Amino acid sequence: MSNLAIGLLGVVVLLVVMLLRVPIGVSLALIGTCGYAAIDGWRKALTVIGSVPFELASAYSLSVVPLFILMGAVASRAGMSRELFDAANAVFSGFRGALTNATIGACAAFGAICGSSIATAATFSKVAIPEMRRHGYEEGLAAGCVASAGTLGILIPPSVILAIYSLVAEQSLSKLFAAALIPGLLLAALYIVTIVIIARLKPAWTPKVPAMPLAQRLRAGTGMWKLVLLFFLAVVGIYLGWFSPTEAAAVAAFAAIVIGFATRALSWSALADAFLDTVFSTAMLFFIIVGAFIFSRFIVLTRLPNELAAWIDAVGLSPLMIVAAVILLYFLLGTFLEEVSTILITVPVVLPLMTSIGYDGIWFGIFVTVMATIGLISPPVGLTVFVIQSQNPDIPAAKIYRGTLPFLAADFVLVALLVAFPALALWLPAALKM
Amino acid sequence: MHLAARLFGTLAAVFLAAMMLLTVADVVLRAFFNYPIQGMLELIELGLACTIFLALPAVFLRDEHLVVDVIDHLTRPSVVRILDLAGALTSLGVLVVMAWQMVPLARAMHEFGDVTSDLSIPRIWYWVPVLLGVVASALATLVFIVRWRRRG
């Protein structure tokens, strides 16, 4: 069998093994090792499985991941999501669909201190959905809005997915954060436009809530200070040259803890829970990263990416068709595969292909992250939808998926804009002279 | 929560807290006293290895892995249960091979006596949590398999 055939077979077997419920990290390590052995013999393959965990365990650039997760975990336990929702509500108060817009605004803001969409959706599901239902909002829309707005967490910096992408793709994390900001804000704006359209078409779904008095609006608005401070430390500090990304993550996580205790919003037991959650999710992610690195050693050995690029060249596909095929690939994978795994598995193959047709590694990082936001809400495996459903068991999953459809359309508008205008992602890092 | 899982999680959390506090201390000392901590990179890397690999057995023990669960909707729960066992056995196999392959690499590094450049930390220390974590994860998977039988 040719190496290429072994590579393709490896990808197929990997998908089958994962569909049989073998943990994703284990599947990747297993198929990666066996595939490597099939090409280069067991001796070298076994050295790979023995050495990769050690090489990654002490990779300094990975240390941002647990620290950013910790900041988000502390912020949600310290009730910051509630304050943000109140503040956003004060801004939109009086408009039709104010609560849905407030959810989008608050999730976008929370995304600026939390790098995870699951955490963002879980937090706002508790805060925003009961409030919207109390005011008579259609529950599918309410849940779909939180599921979709939650995905902003991975796009608006800091972002755990971008941190992991920067590691596999060997791209600068500070550049990626800068590149993600404008697309992230644009996506939030597109979501708000979506809601304005829904409110026009189905006024009954978004009943008007009486406006708050100005004094109350101002008071709620001041709840934003914690967020502004944390975003300043976690993201702006990197560009002022104060911190490296790891230092920014450590300082911001520490500041979140101090603010939590100073405002009496955080207890010792809540802090302990935040730490435990963080180490467990870090270890879980890390094991998938180990598996993905083993698998990508195998893929590199098969020369699958090069062969794929050569094939596309021979067939004469236009760049736009390649982009369309890549979008389709991520959409399909996103329907059943979890997002970090999708990125880890595909980047070694797809990134060389995209750079060969003139796209840049930073742009591609933003592109796959936007595709990941789509995967997070697309059935049958939409992780943010699952999170919301587990917290609101009385809303059927099908209804939540239906609620996310208009936002899915907004996601695709962003994808089209990114493809048509790569500057949306690339302008800010260039302007910051990085 | 399983006591052992909590213990491993707490130990990992202590290292994470140490990483955070050390980094904050370094930033403050550097900014205000122009006195950065020596060998930060090496300390953070050691802390990271300890955090991740101490928490890993807890992930196996709590069966918190990400799996693709499309099949759950297509088949009976009894089939899912058997697939779970097969998944755990596969995990056990992978972890055992991983640990087995790590030992000679760690031993070679120990015999070579390599140390880090700034703080002269013996490199073997970086291997200790990794090796310990993978072996403990294999044991945790074994516990999961034994419990699976008892639950059935």
Question: Can you give a write-up of this model?
Answer:
The complex is a heterodimer of chains A (434) and B (152). By secondary structure, chain A is mainly α. Chain A is 80% helix and 0% strand. Chain A has helices spanning 3-19, 24-40, 42-57, 64-77, 80-92, 98-111, 117-134, 139-150, 152-155, 160-169, 173-201, 214-221, 225-239, 245-262, 268-302, 304-315, 319-336, 339-356, 361-377, 383-391, 397-420, 423-431. Chain B has 4 helices and no strands. The longest helix of chain B is centred in the middle third of the chain and has 36 residues, at 77-112. Chain B is elongated. At the A-B interface, helix 1, helix 2, helix 3, helix 4 and helix 14 of A face helix 1, helix 2, helix 3 and helix 4 of B.
Describe the main β-sheet of chain A briefly: none
Oligomer: heterodimer
> Could you tell me which chain pair has the largest interface and how many residues each side has?
A-B, 56 and 63 residues
N- to C-terminal distance of chain A? 46 Å
- Kindly report how far apart the N and C termini of chain B lie: 21 Å
In what range is the share of β-strand residues of chain B?
A: under 5%
- Share of residues in helices of chain A: over 70%
The helix/strand class of chain B is mainly alpha
N-to-C SSE string of chain A, H for helix and E for strand: HHHHHHHHHHHHHHHHHHHHHH
Q: Quote the average pLDDT of chain B.
A: 87
Order of helices and strands of chain B: HHHH
Helix content of chain B: over 70%
Number of helices of chain A: 22
Q: Over all CA atoms, what is the radius of gyration of chain B?
A: 20 Å
Number of strands of chain B: 0
- Identify low-pLDDT runs of chain A: none
The tally of strands of chain A reads: 0
